[in-house]
């Protein structure tokens, strides 16, 4: 019976010896650098040579392409610079022409406005209106034409048309003190002094040392029975223009408020 056990024990001992040998040798096998193996080192060197050749080929192709395109790119740049310079020159000439045309139209518009004023003095309101409209058609931003047209409409009691003309003046220049004053006078002409006050206030804020504008504000304050504003405005008018005509009359009107 023991004869059957002996081969098994012998096999177990043999396996134990093999395991012991592997345990000692395997770590050394793991840390072996494959790059130190001659065959692997040669393969890596070949790959490096191929990569270097590919890089040199790419650089050579780009260099040849750049050299071939250089004359074309230079010509393209010169053409662009020429076109740009030409465009700037045309723009300069166009501005010069526009400036000359605007000056010429402005001169014609001014002449038409003077003709309209002369017609008004003669009592020809409708013909004067036509002259002012012609001036506007010739020079759409001619402020004087709108101002004269608005005042003509106000004299004719065409309140809506007058308001539109004065409002357009403010679109041309929102800081036009005369346009604000015109709107105030339009409100006064319609018997609305309270509505006139903001317009005169704005005009005075833009031109605080103008006696006429201050007097218009004072007149509207008295008419609206705004005594506090009237006293304040009267003091300002007396300060900036002690000899203003009608100053005494304003004082009497304030006393009667």
How would you describe this protein?
The protein has 257 residues and is an all-alpha fold. Among the domains are: 95-174, Alpha Horseshoe (Serine Threonine Protein Phosphatase 5, Tetratricopeptide repeat); 175-257, Tetratricopeptide repeat domain (Serine Threonine Protein Phosphatase 5, Tetratricopeptide repeat, Alpha Horseshoe), CATH 1.25.40.10. It is built from 10 helices and no strands. The longest helix has 84 residues, at 38-121. The radius of gyration is 50 Å and the shape is elongated. The termini are far apart.
Short description:
The protein has 257 residues and is an all-alpha fold.
What is the CATH superfamily classification of the domain at 175-257? Tetratricopeptide repeat domain
- CATH structural architecture of the domain at 175-257: Alpha Horseshoe
Mean pLDDT comes to 80
DSSP helix fraction: over 70%
Q: What's the assembly state of these chains?
A: single chain
Given this structure, which CATH class of the domain at 175-257 is correct?
Mainly Alpha
Record field, number of beta strands: 0
Overall shape: elongated
Uncertain segments of ≥5 residues (pLDDT<50)? 29-35, 96-103
Strand content: under 5%
Could you outline the blueprint of secondary structure elements for this entry?
Layout lengths: L1 H29 L7 H84 L3 H14 L4 H13 L3 H14 L4 H13 L3 H14 L4 H13 L3 H14 L6 H9 L2
Helix pairs in contact: 2-3, 2-4, 3-4, 4-5, 4-6, 5-6, 6-7, 7-8, 8-9, 9-10
Give me some keywords for this one.
10 helices; Serine Threonine Protein Phosphatase 5, Tetratricopeptide repeat; 257 residues; mainly alpha; elongated; 84% helix; single chain
């Amino acid at each position: 019976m023991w004869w059957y056990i002996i081969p098994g024990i012998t096999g177990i001992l043999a396996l134990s010896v093999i395991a012991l040998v592997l345990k000692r040798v395997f770590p050394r096998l793991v840390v072996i650098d494959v790059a130190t193996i001659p065959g692997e080192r040669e393969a890596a060197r070949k790959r490096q040579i191929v990569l270097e050749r590919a890089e040199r080929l790419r650089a050579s192709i780009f260099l040849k392409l750049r050299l071939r395109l250089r004359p074309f790119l230079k010509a393209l740049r010169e053409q662009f610079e020429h076109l740009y310079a030409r465009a700037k020159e045309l723009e300069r000439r166009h501005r010069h022409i526009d400036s000359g045309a605007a000056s010429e139209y402005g001169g014609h518009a001014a002449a038409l406005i003077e003709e309209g004023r002369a017609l008004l003095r003669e009592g020809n309101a409708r013909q004067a209106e036509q002259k002012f409209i012609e001036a506007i058609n010739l020079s759409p931003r001619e402020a004087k034409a709108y101002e004269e047209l608005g005042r003509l409409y106000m004299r004719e009691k065409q309140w809506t048309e007058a308001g539109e003309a004065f409002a357009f003046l403010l679109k041309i220049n929102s800081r036009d003190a005369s346009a604000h004053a015109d709107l105030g006078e339009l409100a006064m002409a319609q018997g609305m002094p309270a509505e006139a006050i903001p317009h005169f206030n704005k005009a005075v804020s833009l031109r605080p040392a103008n006696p006429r504008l201050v007097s218009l504000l004072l007149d509207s304050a008295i008419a609206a029975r705004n005594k506090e504003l009237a006293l304040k405005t009267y003091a300002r008018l007396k300060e900036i223009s002690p000899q203003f005509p009608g100053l005494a009359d304003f004082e009497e009107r304030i006393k009667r408020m």
